[in-house]
Amino acid sequence: MATTTSQQVLLCPAELAYLHSSLSLTPPIRPDGRTPTHFRPLVAETDILPGTNGSARICFADGTEAIVGVKAEVEKTRGVEEGVEESEVREDEKEGRSEWVELTVEIPGVRDDDGGTAFLSAMLGEALLSDGGFVKRLWINRRWHWKLYLDILLISPPLSYPLPLLSLTTHLALLATRLPRLKSEGVEDPFFDDDWAAAPYLYPRDKKSGKALARPPVTLLVMAVGRNIIFDPAKEELAVADVALAVSVGEAAETGDNDMGGKGRKLRLLSVRTIDPPSRVTPPGVPNATNAAYGAAGTTQKQPEARMAEAEAVEGVWRAPRGGAKPLVMAALVQKTLERGGVADEVLDALEGVDLG
Amino acid sequence: MADRRRINGPAGATIPPIFDDGVDKKTASQKPTRSRPANAVRHTFLKTGVTPSASGSAYLEVEVPGKPGVSGLKLSCTVHGPRSLPRSSPFAPHIILTTHVKFAPFATKQRRGYLRDPTERDLGSHLETALRGAIIADRWPKSGVDIIVSIIEGDQDRETSKEQGDESWDMMNALSGCITVASAALADAGIDCVDTVAGGVAALVREEANNGVAKIVIDPVPSEHVKIEAACCVAYLPTRDEITNLWFKGDMPDDNMNTYMELVQQGIQASKFANRVLVQSISETVG
Question: Is residue A184 situated within a structural domain?
C-alpha cells in the first residue's frame, strides 16, 4: 500500500505544515490554485486501439496518462444443465456473475503482486460489480455469456495517486465498448453479425442524441484537511490529508417523472474505501523551543525528533496525524460527493461531453 | 504469478461431493435462517499469547451453529517486532508496518494456493490502513513490525452451493475478524496504540419473510440471508470515537444517504461489541 500512495513524498516538515495550514483555511488555498471541488484539467479520447472492443486514453494536466483496453470473448456459462428446452426468457431472469469480468491494473515500476495494485484493481472492480446491472449486460443466453477483460495501463510514472485517472479512463472505455450484434436466437450457440458498424454498444445509446442511456460508475478521490473537503487531491495535498476516501458512484435509473426541479442527476453510492493517507508516514517537525540549533538549553541529544513524539503539539510545526477520523467527517465526505449538482455530477457531465467515436 | 516452487494440484477445482440426505430433511435444512435478533453478534472467543515464539499473538474464533458442515471463522495472528530494519533500508521516522493476510489452503470451499491471491493482498491493505491509525508509529523510528494473520477456517456452509454463496461478502466478515485479532496481538506484543481498534460488520439484507423489505443486521452470515444488498466493515476506536478504516460496498436504494449513515452506525455498534471481547481478553492476560 505504502508504495503506491506515498511513493516518496519529498517534502520537509516545514513544507508539510505550510501546506496543511493553507489547505485548512476557509476557503482553502491549494498549491495549484484550484477550488476545493475543481478537478484537474484532462485530455480524453476514445477508440484509440482498433484491436479492442473499446478503448480510451486520458491524460491529466500533471502529466499522468492511462490507457484502457476492453476485450470481450464468448464463454460458456458453467453449471447450466444441457438439453433443457426453454420458452421466453424474461428480463428479470437474466443474471450475471462477477467472474465474467476480469480487471487488471498495471503500474510502471511497481511489482504486479504489490498490495497497492491489488487494492486499486479490487476497488475499480468492486464499483463495477456492485452495480448489479453491469454483469447482466454480458448475458447472451442461458448457456453463453461474454467474458470481459479490462486491462488498465498507467503509461506515465505514478506522479499522483492514480485512482481517479484509472477510474475515469475505464468509464470512457466501457462507454465506447461495442459487442458484435447477435444473430442467433434463443438458447442456440451464439452466432454474430460480422458487420462491425452494426455492433451495438455495451451501454446502449439514445438514437437521436447519441447520449448513453446508462453509464458505468466512476470512483472519485476525496480528502479532508481540517474542516475542508477537497476533491481530486494532487500528490502534495494527499501528503497532508487527515483522511482520504475513494467513493464510487453510479447513476441511478431515472424514474420517469423528472420533476425534481433541480439540475443534475440522481446518484447512487456503490462503494467507499478508506485510503491510507501518506501523511501518517511523514517526518515530524521540531519546534525551535526544543531545537539545540536555535539555542534551546539542555537539549544536546542527537535526535530531537524522538523527543518530539511525546511533546505537546505546537502550532505551525508538522506532526503526522494519529488515530482515525470522526464518523461524521467520513459521512460528510460521502455526502458532499453524492450531492445533486455536486462534483460527481459535474464529472459525469464532463465525460458526457467527450466525443465517443 | 504462478507458483513454481511446489507441486500443485490440477487447475480445475474439485468440490467434495455433497450427498442428498432425502427430500424432507433437505428442505428442512436447505436454507439456514438467522435466529439471532438483528442487533446481536455471534459469540466470539479470543485468546492472546498463543504462539510463544512470536512477540505477540492472538487467536479468534466465532461461534458455530450446531449444524454439521458449517464452520465459523477461525483466525490466528502473530506479531513479530518491533525490530530494527535491515541496514540497507532507508531511514524511516516511523515504524514500518507490514501486514500479511493469508487464507489456509483448506480454509474455504475453493482451495487456495500457497501464494497470496489478489483478494488476500487486498485484505492485507485494508488491515494495514485499519492498524496504522491505531499504532503510535513515531515511538519506533527505524524499526519494523510484521503482522501475519492466517485464516484457518472461513465462514462456510457446505450445504449452500457455490453459486449461491457469493464470496465477496465473506471478505467483510474475514476483515473484521482480522482487525480484531491483530489488535489483540498488537496489545500482546506491547506495541503502543492510541486505543484498541476492533472491526464490525453491518449489512442491508432483503428477506423473503419480510415482504422483501430491506433491513439492517449486524454481523451478517451471508448464507443466512436471501440477498445482501450492501454491507460495510468498520474499524473503530471506541474511546476516541474515530474510524480508522471504512469499507462499504453494495447497491443502495434511492434514499441512500440515510440508509448509508445507519449502516455505518450499526457497523460501529458491531465493532463496539467486538471491542468488549477484546478488552476482556487483554485484561485477563494482564490481570
Answer: yes
For residue A65, give its domain range: 13-83+90-282+318-352
DSSP A181: P
The three three-digit cell numbers of residue A45, written as one number: 479520447
The whole-angstrom separation of Cα B175 and Cα A174 is: 31
Topology of domain B38-286, CATH: Ribosomal Protein S5; domain 2 (3.30.230)
Say whether residue A322 is in contact with chain B using an 8 A CB cutoff: yes
Residue A4 included in any domain: no
Domain count, chain A: 1
Whether the ipTM is more than 0.85: the answer is yes
Domain annotation covers residue A118? yes
Please name which of B179, B79, B170 lies closest in space to residue B129, comparing C-alpha atoms.
Answer: B179
Where do the domains of chain B lie?
Answer: 38-286
Q: Is residue A297 part of a domain?
A: no
CA pair distance A97, A175, nearest whole angstrom: 20
Partners of A241 on chain B (C-beta within 8 Å) are none
Could you tell me the pLDDT band of residue A61, with boundaries at 50, 70 and 90?
confident
Euclidean distance between CA atoms A219 and A207, whole angstroms: 28
pLDDT in tens, A7-44: 567 788 899 999 999 999 988 999 888 888 888 888 99
pLDDT at B184: 95
Using DSSP's 3-state secondary structure scheme, residue B102 falls into strand
* Residues of chain A found within 8 Å of residue B92, distances taken between Cβ atoms: 281
